[in-house]
Amino acid sequence: MSDTTSSALPRAVADAYVDEATELDPITATYLGVRTGQDRLPDFSPAGLEAQADLARRTLAALDSAEVPDDDERRCARLLRERLTAELAVHEAGEGLRAVSNLHSPVHAVRNVFTLMPTQTDEDWAAVAARLRAVPEALAGYQASLEAGLDRKLPAGPRQVATVVVQLGEWLDDEAGSWFTQFVKDGPQALRTDLDAGAAMATGAVAALRDWLRDSYAASVEGTSDAVGRERYATWARYWTGSDLDLDEAYAWGWEEFRRIEAEMRDEAEKVLPGSTPMEALAHLDEHGEAIDGVDAVRDWLQALMDEAMNALDGTHFDLAEPVKHVESRIAPPGSAAAPYYTAPSLDFSRPGRTWLPTLGRERFPVWDLVSTWYHEGVPGHHLQLAQWAYVADRLSRYQATLGQVSANAEGWALYAERLMDELGFLTDPGRRLGYLNAQMLRATRVILDIGMHLELRVPDDSPYRPGETWTPELGRDFFGAYNGLSAAMLDSEIIRYLGMPGQAIGYKLGERSWLAGREAARAAHGDAFDAKAWHMAALSQGSLGLDDLVDELSRL
Fold first, then answer.
1. Starting at the edge strand that comes first in sequence, how are the strands of the sheet with 353-357 ordered?
2. pTM greater than the 0.85 cutoff
């Protein structure tokens, strides 16, 4: 790799890693806005996974001899070492050979990358056609890894397999043609033959993978536990949070948050519908509260909500650069998981940050379930953090602004952003505030369920729900429905998500806890001189860090 001599600084080592990583993984290159490799897809085979691991090992070796002359270099080195070590632990445990998930898997990455590719010119569409032709080889490599996992007795969870089979069927079975066929329909007529042929090849590859998963792989994993156990969970929790967590402490704290939020929800429900429980109040809001009718209308409404927040916060609670002020509201493609999500801008901002709403066939959208969610996904949540990272990437390193992202840092900031909007008085309407509290309850129950299901822990004896029983997915789904105002489809999707991404869902509340602790430590250090706006901008401009390092760094700002 380039520039890894003994005199290299950590940021040079980190950016050399980005250069090589994007060469190995053209999907990552597209996410970053790097145009090279747009006609290719990654090698998802065992050999391809090992090549990425070898790059991580060589980078760690280069980092060992790097000089660390200042705090900027120290933070970069701290992140790079933690991230690559966590990623190698996941690889060496063979997790890439069982990577089946309803949200986070190679086949999802393959489809999603097309939604991020530029399509303004014939040259852009030619790259789309070439990448479509690469789908069969990429998915064949993915299948080879899953087969290798079976050989090593590393099966994926049965629920993940069944869910992904259904998802792939949704991609394929649109009345107007497959998702890929629909995606290329707006391409230029001059490339119509190439685009249609590429879409057909991609469709055929997805169909072949769906059939193999359904007809062969599913039988091989039948009877396997969806719970991963304490050892695998700890490895994944480190990957998602950047922390060696005390899992039992986190589980107990999740219950403390559950009780606190439930009490607050009861108070707010009384304002919405006197005499009601929180779930009854949310059901009332579903039927009788403010709602947006129509998919196009809700997209526009969400855009206006983010624009309103941007205008209100800029100059008062944040100082935002012009490129950061642009964010787009989009509708998620069919066959997505149920949860809304955000995609970051390219490093040059030629592709803006975007929020995505899965509609799940709905035409009516209650507002209580959208407001704090879009503060989370858009402004001041994911968009302000990740767009600011892109804006200051030249002052950090490209790694700190992109590939070094720690999920719990980003999700923790986004949940902190929801709380900040409540603190600033944006959630005074009882229905919208109950929706915010429901979102907080969702994240608290995630801590309980994610750890509880995977470690098969007992429900505490003082729990209001099934005390003394052992967590199972069925019990978890029932508990979730009793204390969260989510649709049945969302409940099902969430439980499958937690089982397929162990340790990810706990990062929201644990990350928020770290952001709050860092803010309070900085406030205590500065006393009356504490400037929240300056602290927010400094915090958003330091790039990613794992939770073990985040509080320490935030307290220094």
1. 327-331, 353-357, 341-343
2. yes
Instruction: Assess contact for 484 and 442: CB atoms under 8 A.
Output: yes
pLDDT by residue (tens digit) across 269-322? 999 999 999 999 999 999 999 999 999 999 999 999 999 999 999 999 999 999
Among 484, 502, 501, 503, CA closest to 439:
484
Phi, then psi, of 391 in degrees rounded to 5: -65, -35
Q: Could you give the residue ranges of the DSSP H alpha helices within 273-368?
A: 278-288, 295-313
Of all residues in the chain, the percent with pLDDT exceeding 90 is 90
Q: What are phi and psi of 394, to 5 degrees?
A: -70, -20
- Rounded Cα distance between 32 and 34, Å, is 6
**DSSP letter at 217?**
I
Query: Could you write out the DSSP letters of every residue in 231-269?
Result: HHHHHHHHHHHSS---HHHHHHHHHHHHHHHHHHHHHHH
pLDDT 10s digits, 221-261:
999 999 999 999 999 999 999 999 999 999 999 999 999 99
Torsion of the alpha carbons at 21, 24, 27 and 29, rounded to the nearest 10: 50
Domains of the chain, by residue range, sit at 10-226, 238-508
- Give the closest residue to 418 by CA, choosing from 391, 443, 386: 443
Helix 547-555 to helix 507-526 angle (10° resolution) is 20
